Amino acid sequence: MRRPTVLAAGLLLALGGPWLDAPASAHPHGYADTRVTFVLEQGKVTTIRIEWQFDQVYSAMLLDDADIDRDGRLDDGERAVAVEDWQFNLEEFGYFAHLTLDGAPVAPVEARDLDVSFHDGRGHLRYDVVVSPPADPVTAALAIGIYDTEFYLFVNPMATTPAAVAGDDGGRCAVRVVDDPERAYYFGQVIPKRYDLQCR
Predict the structure, then answer these.
(1) What is the distance between the alpha carbons of residues 115 and 77, in angstroms, rounded to a whole number?
(2) How many domains are contained in the chain?
(3) Looking at the domain assignment, is residue 2 inside a domain?
């Protein structure tokens, strides 16, 4: 049986909590800044890299959860356990990746190269969501939002370089970060950001 992470335990608590009945009770338990990178191979998007940076208080909780020997850092064994736990739990929540292709939702089915680290007092999480089949961003409108609809975590784009494109040798692509009011969640109180990939 897998050991639940702080993230998973908190989300399960939030899902079943009676305090969710009223919008006035809306408040996150942690904050995260995210960066999205669309990865192109031979002109098509094959993966979307998602990077998280958690606030210091939530990071301390995550480290305490993962630091089995309580030495204040993650050794290779602890990191391997943390990666396995996060992989399992993120899959349960769809990797928090709200992907659309030509406006239609696409459920992510796989994430690769997951990594967990702690430095500068912050917890960091990174993984690549697989786009299958690969999408041609010239002929199809590809977009993604990264957010927690249960509002256990409040997610915002990173202040510096919130979005990027990798493998775009011709410099033909750019990413717009926009509000997505049509997908407002948590009693309509929270309007998420959407990352729109635009290529010519």
Answers:
(1) 13
(2) 1
(3) no
What residue numbers bound the domain in which 74 lies? 30-199
Contact 95, 50 (CB under 8 A): yes
Residue 30 pLDDT more than 80?
A: yes
For residue 13, tell me if it sits in a domain. no
Report if residue 12 sits inside a domain. Answer: no
Instruction: Tell me which DSSP letter residue 22 carries.
Output: S
**What is the spatial distance between Cα 83 and Cα 193, in angstroms, rounded to a whole number?**
26
pLDDT at 188: 93
**Closest listed residue to residue 153, CA positions, set 127, 105, 187, 192:** 192
CA triple 92-94-97, angle to 5 deg: 155
DSSP 129: E
Instruction: Write down the pTM of the prediction.
Output: 0.85
For residue 59, pLDDT over 80 is answered with: yes
User: Helices in the chain by DSSP H: which ranges?
Assistant: 6-16, 56-66, 76-92
Residue 15 forms part of a structural domain: no
Confidence of residue 27 (pLDDT cuts 50, 70, 90): confident
CB 99 within 8 A of CB 36: no
